[in-house]
Amino acid sequence: QVQLVESGGGLVQPGGSLRLSCAASGSIFSIWVMGWYRQAPGKQRELVATLTNRGETKYADSVKDRFTISRDNAKKSVDLQMNSLKPDDTAVYYCYASGILTLTMVAEKANYWGQGTQVTVSS
After folding, report:
1. Segment 36-50, tens digit of pLDDT
2. Please, which residues have CB within 8 angstroms of residue 18's CB and are 6 or more apart in sequence?
3. Which among 28, 61, 63, 110 is least surrounded, fewest beta carbons within 10 Å?
4. Which of 105, 92, 98, 95 has its CA nearest to residue 39?
5. What is the mean pLDDT of the segment spanning 16-38?
6. Kind and range of the H or E run holding 85
């Protein structure tokens, strides 16, 4: 059983910064993709940023040059540094993991999600 636990959300003023963290636990040998999605009220969940275990990144156009994703493969964790936050960044942020290889060398077909952490950008 794989679990993703997020931390680091909260309330911040426009222009401020927050750092989100996510740690995966369970019978995990490796994770291909880790990343972050977000969902604002009344909107669909959207990709924020992803990072493969080979260092390939993908960012939403709306967060490029403001957000930075990083991960520690050994710790099976992923962080999202968010700078120059805007009110439009307000959403629940979800940690994501896919392409998991278990300790018994079984390739998990399921994608995994964290429980979500609220980020509110407001003055």
Report:
1. 999 999 999 999 999
2. 8, 9, 10, 12, 82, 85, 119
3. 61
4. 92
5. 97
6. none
DSSP class per residue in 27-47: S-SEEEEEEEEEE-TTS--EE
What tokens were used for 18? 């927050």
Tens of pLDDT, residue by residue over 62-84, are 999 999 999 999 999 999 999 99
Which of 28, 120, 42 shows the shortest CA–CA distance to 74? 28
Question: In angstroms, rounded to a whole number, what is the distance separating the alpha carbons of residues 37 and 102?
Answer: 23
Max Cα-Cα span within the chain: 49
